[in-house]
Every structure is written in structure tokens, then in C-alpha cells.
């Protein structure tokens, strides 16, 4: 089962992942960092695209 990891230390809060894949990513209102909508997201092409376009490269997909 694939897993998505977000390094919140590296995250700049740019919201690119949220714009590209809002069904998986959201913004933590308090930390102003990327977070997952659910703990068991479905890994789609949009998730891979969000990871690829992340300017800080803080999204990792482990398969």
C-alpha cells in the first residue's frame, strides 16, 4: 500500500498541492502547512503531479 509523507519542516505553505489535488491535500490552518485530507488517501496521477510540482519537494510517495 502506498503512503504519502509531507515534510512540514520544508513546506512553505504555497498551496500548490492543494490547487492540483484538493481531494487529497489541504492546508493546516494553524501551521499554515500542507496536510492530508484523510489518513488513507487514494494515490492517483494528480497526487504524483502535486509531488512533482511541489517547489520545496516536501511530498514523498512511498510505494
Description:
Strands 1-4 form a two-stranded antiparallel sheet. It starts with a strand and ends with a strand. It contains two helices and four strands. Strand 2 (25-28) and strand 3 form a beta hairpin. By secondary structure, the protein is an alpha+beta fold. The protein has one domain (3-62): Alpha-Beta Plaits (2-Layer Sandwich). The protein is globular and about 30 Å long.
Summarize the structure in short:
The protein has 63 residues and is α+β, with helices and mostly antiparallel strands. It has two helices and four strands. It has a two-stranded antiparallel sheet. Strands 2-3 form a two-stranded antiparallel sheet.
Strand order in space, largest sheet: 1-4
Which class in CATH terms?
Alpha Beta
Please give the CATH architecture: 2-Layer Sandwich
Distinct helical segment count: 2
Decide which structural class fits the backbone. Answer: alpha+beta
State the end-to-end distance. Answer: 6 Å
Mean pLDDT, as a whole number? 96
Rg for CA atoms: 10 Å
Number of strands: 4
User: What is the CATH topology?
Assistant: Alpha-Beta Plaits
Amino acid at each position: 500500500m502506498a503512503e504519502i509523507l509531507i515534510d512540514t519542516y520544508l513546506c512553505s505553505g504555497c498551496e500548490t498541492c492543494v490547487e492540483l489535488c484538493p481531494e487529497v491535500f489541504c492546508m493546516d490552518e494553524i501551521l499554515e502547512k500542507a496536510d492530508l485530507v484523510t489518513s488513507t488517501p487514494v494515490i492517483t496521477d494528480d497526487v504524483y503531479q502535486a509531488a512533482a510540482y511541489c517547489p520545496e519537494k516536501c511530498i514523498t510517495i512511498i510505494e
